Amino acid sequence: MPMLFDLLDISANGKYAKVVINDTSLVFPTLLTLTSTKENDINWLLGDSGKTLSINLPPSSLTQEVSNKKTTIQFVANILMHEPLQVSFVLNNLQKTTALIADRLKIVPPENALVMLQPNINPEILDAVTKTITKYKIRHVGITNFTPLLNTPRKALEFILRLRQLLPLDTLLYLFSPVPHTVVPILSYCGVDAFNSGYVWLATKSGLYLTAAGALPLTQLSEKICSCKICADLPISDLQKALLENNAAGLDEHNMLIYQAKVREVRYALKQKDLRSYVEQNLFDTFTATALRLLDSSWTDMLISRTATWLSTPIYHLTPLSYYRPAVQAFQRRVRERFDILPYKKIVVIFPCSARKPYSFSKSHRKFLEVINSLPKDKQAYIQQLILTSPLGVIPRELELVYPAAHYDIPVTGLWSEEEKAIAVQQLTSVLLKARKQKPIVIAHVSDEYLTLCQEAEQKLKTTFVYTAAGSKPTAFQALANLKKTLLAKIADSPPHQYNKDLEFVRALSDYQFGLGIGEKLFPEPVTLKQKPNQNIFLFKGKNRIGVIHHRTGQLMLTVPMGMALAKQKKYYLKLHGEELKGSTIFAVGVFEADPEIRPSDGVVILNEKDELLGVGVASLSGSDMVSMSSGRAAKVKTKVKSLTKAHSG
Ligand SMILES: [Zn+2]
Fold it and tell me: How far does residue 10's CA lie from ligand 1's centre (Å)?
């Protein structure tokens, strides 16, 4: 039977690790070797060949890149900081440990160095410890004494996330303490990179048969659950009999397969850039559920800053926990902060959402748009359309292609929970408040639950909406006729107003991407849009193609002229040392300043020290991570500025 191990203590002389196996202490040389095995799994081996401990290593959950080259990681020091040690003791001791680290780093390259530490959420301690790790550019951090924290999710989360916040993103976090496979997804989502497979042996020793969702007592099973090679070959009674005879061979292999499958699934989700969905599918224990709630409510800014703005994959809102996904909260925030109801809009029409996305492609919205388009051309400019939905709240028509507005899916029952209602009403009132000055007429072309929501918003805003579909379906002939009649009456006395629908669209999109008012700077003159079904949207100025909007994500891609305008506004920029761009990758080590608003996948402008535009690209990291990290890719270059036409943006 493989060893049952728990790494309890690593001696501070740096040469040996003391590992406690059952009741026996063993001392290992502290050479840690990263090797990749045949199955494309990466195992972390500790010790010499005879007494090796193996630890599963998924690629970094945030950088998503791990070298397959054989790397030797060397333990350099144990930073003694576990509770309930006194702050003064820890800080005093840290000085001694720092001297040791400095000494060890004379022979160990910092990118191969590993320090151990223990959970402690005291801000003073965390600050001092992470500063030391950052100062010496140590890239590997091992955590021991973590398992008891599974009983206190708030503390566990705070510890891991504070480390993730204070340490550069390219620091790898290794969880030495064994944890159940069911918490691997949520801990990866928090930023843990490597897991100790020791839980397999703990579970096996306790006679537990692991499944994807948890652990079952083997003795109580009456039929096979799994059909892995072990389970297929051995009847369950044989496994049970072997266990009674204290022989867990078979059970341990099955359990290891289940644990490895979980780690592989996490890796797959990371490659798909959607670990969040996988975490929601893994709500098998209270730790995960509690941690996810806490993450969404107390760590929103950090989560959002490291969550991609632009994706093309669908989002499934299956549980109330999905309402607070960072992508959803980020969208709501940008709509509140970066969308404006233009001053000449006299009417706001509220429509219900549709299951089909983007909305304009749905049967119901085609009917709504038919009504709008049938109005006199020179009066349509007065109308702002808003779409009411859960859980995003309110989607301005101009932003219906933007991720995740065109990508979400939610079970449609016609019933809204109190939580969904509250979110939608809050978002609707804050968007309508933008037009407080011009006091537009609000027409709610909605029925059923949507109507209740509008009435709540009406009360909150202390205004009166006009209802054009009450008592029937918004798509009913009578309701549509009523909408048209009402709209015509409201705009009848208004003078003609020029309407460039495409310009409004592209400006609203630019504002959403780069900040309120940026649309006017990027597009001072009218543009037209052209799109064939299921293809990118092209922007034209006269006959010249001047840009493209990605149809799957809804993102406006930056061009050099747009980049120049953006650079002048000091928005979404990153700054590099050097005169020109070499290659198509910008590495974090070269970035010395970046707009903290940048999130992964956002379009960015690349500047040199003199604020000259070198090119435009797409961010791979958040602005602050680009600056703090010393390795890894910060951005992909899309277009370079030819040196002769380099523009000064100052
Ligand atoms: Zn099995």
Answer: 35
